[in-house]
């Protein structure tokens, strides 16, 4: 009988651990760098005057993403500006802006690089959320210390039905181009898993992107701009 109870307790512990892990993993919002590439010819030069361009027709998204990247670059002591301040959004009735003219404008204002951000893919993932998963560490021992309390507490957690929900996974690409040569210097791919808000996702994307640029010696970290 003792072995049966021990086995039942072990099984409950194992199933509870799995459910809690799935629950916490599924709910966690994160933005991560998944890969990067640096042009082998991009050596010996760092970039200090950067135009940040989020390639999207959504004005709000463009402003949020560009501003957060500008803030991170400024915090490293670099001069950065949002592309929306250099070339404002055009309406659907207007023709596509002349890219050569855009480059000339940036060169004329002494910008040496342009950092672009684009959404390259979007996926939907369905996951199961078990009901009532979780417990307070303060009251844990009151039910964990005896099998009767342990079993009574966990049984409804394990057998009450949960629900299904959908999460969004966004795949983004960030590129750094030399304004004078028009050549690609650096490219990075990132993934944002079920971001709770545009603000949090944009801030995290800016942080990991600028840190990686500094790590790859494409920007020189100096004193933060005031």
What is the averaged pLDDT score? 75
Question: What percent of residues are in strands?
Answer: 25-35%
**N- and C-termini, Cα separation:** 72 Å
* Class from helix and strand fractions: alpha/beta
Main pleated-sheet profile: 6 strands, mixed
What is the 3D form?
elongated
Quantity of strands, as a count: 6
Unreliable runs, pLDDT <50, ≥5 residues? 7-28, 133-141
Number of helices: 7
The gyration radius over C-alpha positions equals 25 Å
SSE order: HEEHEHHEHHEEH
Which percent bin holds the helix content?
Answer: 40-55%
Strand order of the largest sheet: 1-6-5-4-2-3
What's the SSE blueprint?
Elements: H1 2-27, E1 30-38, E2 49-54, H2 59-75, E3 79-82, H3 83-86, H4 99-108, E4 113-129, H5 140-144, H6 147-159, E5 163-178, E6 184-193, H7 198-215
Parallel strand pairs: 2-3, 2-4
Antiparallel strand pairs: 1-6, 4-5, 5-6
Helix pairs in contact: 1-6, 2-7
């Amino acid at each position: 009988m003792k072995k049966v109870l021990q086995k039942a307790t072990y099984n409950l512990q194992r199933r509870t651990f799995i459910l809690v892990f799935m629950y916490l993993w599924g709910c966690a919002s994160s933005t991560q760098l998944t890969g990067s590439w640096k042009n082998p010819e991009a050596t010996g030069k760092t970039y200090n005057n950067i135009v940040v361009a989020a390639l999207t027709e959504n004005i709000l998204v463009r402003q949020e993403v560009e501003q957060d990247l500008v803030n991170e670059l400024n915090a490293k002591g670099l001069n950065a500006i949002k592309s929306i301040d250099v070339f404002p959004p055009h309406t659907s009735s207007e023709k596509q802006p002349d890219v050569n003219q855009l480059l000339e404008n940036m060169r004329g204002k002494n910008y040496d690089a342009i950092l672009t951000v684009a959404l390259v893919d979007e996926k939907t993932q369905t996951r199961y959320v078990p009901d009532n998963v979780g417990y307070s560490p303060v009251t844990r021992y009151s039910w964990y210390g005896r099998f009767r309390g342990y079993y009574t507490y966990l049984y409804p957690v394990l057998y009450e039905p949960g629900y299904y929900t959908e999460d969004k996974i966004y795949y983004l690409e960030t590129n750094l181009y030399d304004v004078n040569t028009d050549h690609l210097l650096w490219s990075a791919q990132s993934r944002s898993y079920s971001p709770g808000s545009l603000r949090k996702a944009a801030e995290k994307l800016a942080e990991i992107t600028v840190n990686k640029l500094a790590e790859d010696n494409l920007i020189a970290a100096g004193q933060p701009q005031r």
